[in-house]
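Incident log, structure service

09:12 report received: a user says their structure output differs between two submissions of the same chain.
09:20 pulled the input from the user's history:
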Amino acid sequence: MHAILMYGLKSIKVLSLFDCKGQNSFFKDLHSHPALPTKIKDATILSERLKLYKRIISHYVEDYAKKDEKTHPSNSTQLTFMPWDERNSVWPALKSEIARIFDDVIDQLHIFHIQELYARGLDKTAEEVMLTINISPELGESLLEITGQRIKYFIDRQIPSRTLEIYSTMTTAISGWLKKQDPSILYRPECKMEDIRQLLNHVINCLEEESEEYNLSLGLVDVVHSLL
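09:34 re-ran on a clean worker, output below:
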Protein backbone atom coordinates (compact mmCIF):
# COMPACT_ATOMS: atom_id res chain seq x y z
CA MET A 1 0.00 0.00 0.00
CA HIS A 2 2.95 2.29 0.65
CA ALA A 3 4.11 1.80 -2.95
CA ILE A 4 0.59 2.50 -4.24
CA LEU A 5 0.52 5.81 -2.37
CA MET A 6 4.13 6.70 -3.19
CA TYR A 7 3.73 6.22 -6.94
CA GLY A 8 0.12 7.37 -7.17
CA LEU A 9 -1.23 4.06 -8.47
CA LYS A 10 -4.84 5.11 -8.02
CA SER A 11 -6.26 2.45 -10.32
CA ILE A 12 -5.00 -0.36 -8.07
CA LYS A 13 -7.68 -1.91 -5.87
CA VAL A 14 -5.82 -3.39 -2.91
CA LEU A 15 -8.49 -5.93 -1.97
CA SER A 16 -8.39 -7.40 -5.48
CA LEU A 17 -4.87 -8.64 -4.69
CA PHE A 18 -6.10 -11.06 -2.00
CA ASP A 19 -8.45 -14.01 -1.69
CA CYS A 20 -11.46 -14.00 0.66
CA LYS A 21 -9.38 -14.90 3.73
CA GLY A 22 -6.93 -12.13 3.00
CA GLN A 23 -9.68 -9.59 2.41
CA ASN A 24 -11.44 -10.48 5.66
CA SER A 25 -8.22 -10.17 7.68
CA PHE A 26 -8.07 -6.44 6.89
CA PHE A 27 -11.21 -5.86 8.92
CA LYS A 28 -10.29 -7.88 12.02
CA ASP A 29 -8.29 -7.01 15.12
CA LEU A 30 -4.70 -8.21 14.79
CA HIS A 31 -4.92 -9.75 18.27
CA SER A 32 -7.66 -12.06 17.02
CA HIS A 33 -5.14 -13.90 14.83
CA PRO A 34 -7.06 -13.57 11.55
CA ALA A 35 -6.65 -16.28 8.92
CA LEU A 36 -3.79 -15.50 6.56
CA PRO A 37 -4.17 -15.54 2.77
CA THR A 38 -3.62 -18.95 1.23
CA LYS A 39 -1.07 -19.68 -1.47
CA ILE A 40 -3.73 -19.57 -4.13
CA LYS A 41 -3.44 -20.16 -7.84
CA ASP A 42 -6.38 -18.00 -8.83
CA ALA A 43 -5.41 -16.68 -12.26
CA THR A 44 -7.24 -13.37 -11.83
CA ILE A 45 -5.59 -12.53 -8.50
CA LEU A 46 -2.16 -13.60 -9.72
CA SER A 47 -2.60 -11.44 -12.81
CA GLU A 48 -3.54 -8.40 -10.71
CA ARG A 49 -0.53 -8.92 -8.45
CA LEU A 50 1.79 -9.23 -11.43
CA LYS A 51 0.44 -5.97 -12.87
CA LEU A 52 1.07 -4.21 -9.56
CA TYR A 53 4.60 -5.58 -9.22
CA LYS A 54 5.44 -4.51 -12.78
CA ARG A 55 4.09 -1.00 -12.27
CA ILE A 56 6.15 -0.62 -9.10
CA ILE A 57 9.25 -1.79 -10.96
CA SER A 58 8.58 0.61 -13.85
CA HIS A 59 8.19 3.60 -11.52
CA TYR A 60 11.24 2.59 -9.51
CA VAL A 61 13.45 2.24 -12.61
CA GLU A 62 12.13 5.55 -13.96
CA ASP A 63 13.08 7.32 -10.71
CA TYR A 64 16.45 5.60 -10.67
CA ALA A 65 17.17 6.69 -14.26
CA LYS A 66 16.28 10.31 -13.45
CA LYS A 67 18.50 10.25 -10.38
CA ASP A 68 21.32 8.70 -12.39
CA GLU A 69 21.14 11.37 -15.09
CA LYS A 70 21.06 14.16 -12.51
CA THR A 71 23.95 12.73 -10.50
CA HIS A 72 26.13 11.84 -13.48
CA PRO A 73 25.50 14.36 -16.28
CA SER A 74 27.35 13.28 -19.39
CA ASN A 75 27.35 13.67 -23.14
CA SER A 76 27.51 9.90 -23.45
CA THR A 77 24.38 8.09 -24.59
CA GLN A 78 25.07 5.33 -22.06
CA LEU A 79 23.92 6.25 -18.58
CA THR A 80 26.56 5.85 -15.89
CA PHE A 81 26.17 2.99 -13.44
CA MET A 82 25.54 3.93 -9.83
CA PRO A 83 26.41 1.28 -7.20
CA TRP A 84 23.35 -0.05 -5.42
CA ASP A 85 22.84 0.90 -1.82
CA GLU A 86 20.10 0.06 0.68
CA ARG A 87 17.86 2.91 -0.42
CA ASN A 88 18.22 2.12 -4.10
CA SER A 89 17.50 -1.59 -3.70
CA VAL A 90 14.54 -1.44 -1.33
CA TRP A 91 11.78 -1.75 -3.94
CA PRO A 92 13.19 -4.58 -6.09
CA ALA A 93 14.12 -6.51 -2.95
CA LEU A 94 10.75 -5.88 -1.30
CA LYS A 95 8.90 -6.76 -4.49
CA SER A 96 10.69 -10.11 -4.70
CA GLU A 97 10.12 -10.87 -1.02
CA ILE A 98 6.39 -10.16 -1.23
CA ALA A 99 6.07 -12.24 -4.39
CA ARG A 100 7.95 -15.09 -2.71
CA ILE A 101 5.67 -14.99 0.34
CA PHE A 102 2.59 -15.23 -1.85
CA ASP A 103 4.17 -17.90 -4.07
CA ASP A 104 3.99 -15.76 -7.20
CA VAL A 105 6.23 -16.04 -10.25
CA ILE A 106 9.57 -14.51 -9.29
CA ASP A 107 11.33 -15.15 -12.60
CA GLN A 108 8.85 -13.06 -14.58
CA LEU A 109 9.49 -10.11 -12.28
CA HIS A 110 13.26 -10.41 -12.54
CA ILE A 111 13.03 -10.52 -16.33
CA PHE A 112 10.72 -7.50 -16.40
CA HIS A 113 13.10 -5.60 -14.09
CA ILE A 114 16.01 -6.27 -16.45
CA GLN A 115 13.91 -5.30 -19.47
CA GLU A 116 12.99 -1.97 -17.89
CA LEU A 117 16.63 -1.21 -17.11
CA TYR A 118 17.76 -1.91 -20.67
CA ALA A 119 14.80 0.04 -22.05
CA ARG A 120 16.10 3.10 -20.19
CA GLY A 121 19.72 2.62 -21.20
CA LEU A 122 20.86 1.42 -17.78
CA ASP A 123 22.90 -1.44 -19.20
CA LYS A 124 25.49 -1.69 -16.43
CA THR A 125 22.80 -1.85 -13.77
CA ALA A 126 20.91 -4.48 -15.76
CA GLU A 127 24.07 -6.58 -15.93
CA GLU A 128 24.42 -6.34 -12.15
CA VAL A 129 20.85 -7.60 -11.73
CA MET A 130 21.47 -10.46 -14.18
CA LEU A 131 24.26 -11.72 -11.95
CA THR A 132 21.70 -12.39 -9.21
CA ILE A 133 19.38 -14.66 -11.24
CA ASN A 134 19.54 -17.80 -13.33
CA ILE A 135 19.68 -16.99 -17.04
CA SER A 136 16.92 -18.53 -19.15
CA PRO A 137 15.71 -18.69 -22.76
CA GLU A 138 12.79 -16.48 -21.76
CA LEU A 139 15.20 -13.77 -20.65
CA GLY A 140 17.20 -14.19 -23.85
CA GLU A 141 14.11 -13.84 -26.04
CA SER A 142 13.00 -10.66 -24.27
CA LEU A 143 16.46 -9.11 -24.57
CA LEU A 144 16.66 -10.15 -28.23
CA GLU A 145 13.69 -7.88 -28.93
CA ILE A 146 15.43 -4.95 -27.24
CA THR A 147 18.60 -5.71 -29.21
CA GLY A 148 16.65 -5.60 -32.46
CA GLN A 149 14.96 -2.34 -31.51
CA ARG A 150 18.32 -0.76 -30.71
CA ILE A 151 19.91 -1.94 -33.95
CA LYS A 152 17.01 -0.63 -36.02
CA TYR A 153 17.17 2.74 -34.28
CA PHE A 154 20.93 2.92 -34.84
CA ILE A 155 20.60 2.16 -38.54
CA ASP A 156 17.56 4.33 -39.27
CA ARG A 157 18.29 7.32 -37.04
CA GLN A 158 22.01 7.49 -36.33
CA ILE A 159 23.33 6.61 -39.79
CA PRO A 160 20.32 7.28 -42.09
CA SER A 161 22.51 7.90 -45.14
CA ARG A 162 23.60 4.24 -45.09
CA THR A 163 20.26 2.63 -44.27
CA LEU A 164 19.56 1.06 -47.68
CA GLU A 165 23.16 -0.05 -48.08
CA ILE A 166 23.22 -1.78 -44.70
CA TYR A 167 19.91 -3.58 -45.15
CA SER A 168 21.01 -4.81 -48.58
CA THR A 169 23.95 -6.69 -47.04
CA MET A 170 21.71 -8.69 -44.69
CA THR A 171 19.86 -11.92 -45.33
CA THR A 172 16.18 -11.55 -46.14
CA ALA A 173 15.23 -13.12 -42.81
CA ILE A 174 17.32 -10.74 -40.71
CA SER A 175 16.45 -7.58 -42.63
CA GLY A 176 12.76 -8.49 -42.52
CA TRP A 177 12.91 -9.12 -38.77
CA LEU A 178 14.77 -5.88 -38.08
CA LYS A 179 12.34 -3.80 -40.13
CA LYS A 180 9.49 -5.08 -37.97
CA GLN A 181 11.12 -3.87 -34.75
CA ASP A 182 9.71 -0.75 -33.09
CA PRO A 183 12.36 1.36 -31.29
CA SER A 184 9.68 3.72 -29.95
CA ILE A 185 8.90 1.07 -27.32
CA LEU A 186 12.23 1.90 -25.66
CA TYR A 187 12.44 4.90 -23.35
CA ARG A 188 16.04 5.47 -24.45
CA PRO A 189 16.73 3.76 -27.80
CA GLU A 190 19.97 5.58 -28.60
CA CYS A 191 23.18 3.90 -27.48
CA LYS A 192 26.66 3.02 -28.64
CA MET A 193 27.10 0.04 -30.94
CA GLU A 194 29.53 -1.41 -28.41
CA ASP A 195 26.69 -1.52 -25.87
CA ILE A 196 24.51 -3.33 -28.41
CA ARG A 197 27.30 -5.84 -29.00
CA GLN A 198 27.57 -6.51 -25.28
CA LEU A 199 23.80 -6.96 -24.98
CA LEU A 200 23.81 -9.37 -27.92
CA ASN A 201 26.46 -11.45 -26.15
CA HIS A 202 24.14 -11.77 -23.15
CA VAL A 203 21.29 -12.78 -25.45
CA ILE A 204 23.34 -15.57 -27.03
CA ASN A 205 24.40 -16.86 -23.61
CA CYS A 206 20.76 -17.12 -22.53
CA LEU A 207 19.28 -18.86 -25.57
CA GLU A 208 19.26 -22.57 -26.38
CA GLU A 209 21.57 -23.39 -29.27
CA GLU A 210 18.96 -25.28 -31.29
CA SER A 211 16.39 -22.48 -31.11
CA GLU A 212 15.35 -20.19 -33.96
CA GLU A 213 16.14 -17.16 -31.78
CA TYR A 214 19.71 -18.41 -31.27
CA ASN A 215 20.29 -18.65 -35.03
CA LEU A 216 18.82 -15.18 -35.47
CA SER A 217 21.17 -13.84 -32.80
CA LEU A 218 24.18 -15.32 -34.55
CA GLY A 219 23.10 -13.57 -37.73
CA LEU A 220 22.85 -10.28 -35.85
CA VAL A 221 26.46 -10.68 -34.71
CA ASP A 222 27.64 -10.06 -38.29
CA VAL A 223 25.34 -7.04 -38.58
CA VAL A 224 26.69 -5.52 -35.37
CA HIS A 225 30.30 -6.16 -36.34
CA SER A 226 29.74 -4.36 -39.64
CA LEU A 227 28.47 -1.32 -37.74
CA LEU A 228 31.26 -1.10 -35.16
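09:41 both user submissions now match this output. Likely a transient worker issue. Closing.
09:42 reviewer note: The mean pLDDT is 80. The two ends are 47 Å apart (CA to CA).
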